[in-house]
Amino acid sequence: MGTSHAAAAPKRVGWKKVAASIRSPLRNSDTIVEQGFSVIVDVVPDNFIREPVIFAISEGTKFVSAAKDKGLEQAFQSESLQVSEKYPTVSAAHEIWKLASSKADPRTINSPFGMLAEAAFKKTFLFMMEGDPYLVQKIPTIKEADQNLVQFIEKSGKEGYVHLFTTNYLYELIQYYLHSRGTGEQNTSLFFYYSQSQKRTFSPDEIKKFKENLRLECSKRAKQIVDNLQQSNFSFELIDPTLNPRVGEMLTESIKHVLSTAEEQK
Description:
Elements: H1 13-23, H2 29-43, H3 46-70, H4 72-78, H5 88-101, H6 106-109, H7 112-130, H8 142-178, H9 189-194, E1 195-197, E2 200-201, H10 204-231, H11 245-259
Antiparallel strand pairs: 1-2
Helix pairs in contact: 1-2, 2-10, 3-4, 3-5, 3-7, 3-8, 3-11, 5-7, 7-8, 8-10, 10-11
């Protein structure tokens, strides 16, 4: 992701450890993600993570269920969503996010964390409707997008959607902070993301591999969050955050349980 709206580096001792871990020749993604999230969950207000995510999960799951049962076109018509014939999947992802985000507090949706949730949400729906972006050779029609989405849900279930969205969101979140700027350009995680020193810049292949490893670690933690929610009898399809505040509390507890570490408590 870009850095034009880079976050300010968290003013925590723990974040210096994150920068040091990125600078290390080993660049252990598991350590970086663990250290990074232990700081992030401590500095970001609960509602700014919880609210965009809970509506993305609840409304996304409802739409996926409707599309599987009635087909994409009927699901669009039921919600009065306007989809472009030229760019059906991109416009569909945009419209579905508008529907989901319209029910949340605008202050959280328009925050940086709401924007991260938006990016993750759209990438999730594009993947379900188009498939792997590295393999897509042409823009699918609505009919093809419908078939792709149904195949995804039949194979992975609604929890597959929640896992993919949560993976994408955690990845957007850790990238946002790893691209943060601190005091002194050479003392930031942003500098060490691309350079080991003034004389040594990581190659494009090294950076690509690093991103892939970060995403893999986010996927592992997303699965833990989804598993925790399912064990708590958290119903992805029936939740309504506006009627039951406990739903949001359960999500927050699960995210913090997975992302927090013993180091955070020191």
